[in-house]
Amino acid sequence: MARDDIDPTLLIKDMATRARAASAVLARETSARKASALMAAAKAIRTAEAEILNANEQDVAAARANGLSPAMIDRLLLDSGRIAAIADGVETVAGLRDPVGMVIDENLRPNGLKLSRVRVPLGVIGIIYESRPNVTVDAGILCLKSGNAAILRGGSEAMRTNRALHAALIAGITEKGLPADSIQLVPTTDRAAVGAMLVAQGMIDIIIPRGGKTLVARVQDEARVPVLAHLDGICHTYIDAAADPAKAIAIAVNAKMRRTGVCGATETLLIDQAYAHPAAVAGALLDAGCALRGDAQAQRLDPRITAASDEDWDTEYLDNICAVAFVDSVAGALAHIAAHSSHHTESIVTENAATAEQFLAAADSAIVMHNASTQFADGGEFGLGAEIGIATGRLHARGPVALEGLTTYKWLVRGTGQVRP
Amino acid sequence: MARDDIDPTLLIKDMATRARAASAVLARETSARKASALMAAAKAIRTAEAEILNANEQDVAAARANGLSPAMIDRLLLDSGRIAAIADGVETVAGLRDPVGMVIDENLRPNGLKLSRVRVPLGVIGIIYESRPNVTVDAGILCLKSGNAAILRGGSEAMRTNRALHAALIAGITEKGLPADSIQLVPTTDRAAVGAMLVAQGMIDIIIPRGGKTLVARVQDEARVPVLAHLDGICHTYIDAAADPAKAIAIAVNAKMRRTGVCGATETLLIDQAYAHPAAVAGALLDAGCALRGDAQAQRLDPRITAASDEDWDTEYLDNICAVAFVDSVAGALAHIAAHSSHHTESIVTENAATAEQFLAAADSAIVMHNASTQFADGGEFGLGAEIGIATGRLHARGPVALEGLTTYKWLVRGTGQVRP
Lengths: 421, 421
Known about the structure:
The structure is a homodimer.
Chain A: H1 8-26, H2 31-47, H3 49-65, H4 70-76, H5 80-94, E1 103-108, E2 114-121, E3 124-129, H6 134-145, E4 149-153, H7 159-175, E5 183-185, H8 192-198, E6 206-210, H9 213-222, E7 235-239, H10 245-257, E8 266-272, H11 278-287, E9 291-294, H12 296-299, E10 306-307, E11 321-327, H13 329-340, E12 345-349, H14 353-362, E13 367-372, E14 389-391, E15 399-401, E16 407-418
Parallel strand pairs in A: 3-4, 3-6, 4-5, 7-8, 7-12, 8-11, 9-10, 9-11, 12-13
Antiparallel strand pairs in A: 1-2, 2-16, 14-15
């Protein structure tokens, strides 16, 4: 069943060939047919609840036997509510605006040629993820909605659950006439299959890793296929001299503590030397249960603040820990961010509009905010409907990647017999 | 002077560090200041004509001594007219619309957050090219106009000319206060410097090769930095059953023969079995001096047509040679293109609008045309003002890459104290 006997390079080549054929069909499907297929998939997931839960029980039992941590088991675990939420998510994506066919711009040339740039799917997308089985569905349907074929490679500990979810997805979309190869699940737990995906240039158009830093780092290091990802979310919140004290506290506490494990959580608090109420911000974070690691000046704010090491400025804690540094005005904040940011999300708190605009213009990150919590760094919060990930690279798509980020464009040129002089 | 004693990895690291610092300055320069610097650079090139011609004479003499082909020497050679054309090109780019700061879209969220996506420069761009010295100027100024720092690595045979052109460029832009490191020329002819550029991930944001297939293939094979390029331009012109006979002849002859050495030249002519006048098209091409290599059916059109081998369908001739195949309707043409295209440019000749739209939708290439010559595949012809190259990949930019393709975007979020529930 696990098909671990198959040569991974041949396996991925075969899957990619079938994905390419499916992508050619998907690229020309109408929005209505894709939406109808997704609605059928949602229904099929609800119908298959018992099979999915049964498969998940086996995965969870094996995970417990293998000594996986409670946190990992929680990521793996499904129940009725979680399956319903997965199906709800499919219906939400079914209703999103389809980017395929959208005209980006048009241009009538003096010689009468009519040019237009039209959005088309990327083609074949590889998704490499870990133990959360919902990614099987979430990633698969975002690819399908945007007209792409998907090759999914989930974590081995979730293999039975992923297969059950995948079977339901395929049952739904094939019922509406879409190709079964639109969404394929790599049928082996052999890690060499991941390696084969990463070097499948020309066969897989883009790889999107979903998971922890170790996974993302491996993908970025080994991939010859382009990768959309973020390795770190070392986000900064800067409290300017002209910050409103109440906003400073509310934003700092929310940016750090709302959920400490998300990539948009603030990891370093920067405070202007000239800000009048730094102890109140630090105290609010400490009182909220956050450990603070500060530079020499920050340590004097509160005896509970310990000394930061050089490493702290480059650490994504994903925990209730925050580094705190004093900086000399917005220029100092920008210099600290330029030196330590992972180019994910930065925020300034200030009532000075000119300072805010300076920060927005100069901070070189995918997302730059003014008077808002860095925890808003999310495709759903940005109104994109759903996101497949957040990218901190500079090519193709930056920040939250949703349906549009899974497309490219082509140039259509409509003439009446023009030849070039 | 050639600095071939320097470790190429350290050299590129040093250049990239200086480029990154320059790019941070350039990213915030106004359009007016960038345009003014480019106008000064154009003037400096005109002023330095004698030095440039002197350097070029030395390069050309060395090239002759080294036995370079007349075609290569012509690519290398400058004269007064060519220098004036280079300076004219700088002035044209100075006047183009600056993409930096353009708002792609805006979105007011229900919680009051104002989102906007704003174009920003990519950062540091590496250009690797061969013997045409004009690329030193063309590529450098397109990068500068779009707010990027450039690292240029030209061919060793043009080194003296490139240095003279580069010195004039830098004299012009520094006169207007822009950083001297905005456009850097790799000072060594050591080929290892190219290798060092290709693996400078995180230091160089994108590599654009300009030159022959050997260069592009090496760059694509070795690069870990993302590459924007096209390896081949295996472009197709398809004559549909419903083609207008006069347009069919005019477009086929122009698409193939206007200039055979450009990447948008048609390399394969596909003719519908049901087209009534195939011999007239073939005859016109033959009479225009084009050798035709046909499948069995095509060979019967004219005794001058020789037999095509399997390789012909995958060959970019860049010469007055054309492959000719009969296909069964637009579906057959699309199948041939799917099997053999390099995803550059395809064109259909037909008076049937529905067939045309089918072809435009289904042909998976960067540029797809109806009743127009594939030789229009060019940034200038597309109204982009200037192009740095044509990309056949699917990520980031596709087709002619001009100023917009040298930018990315960031998300700006303007709030009034919002925190995430």
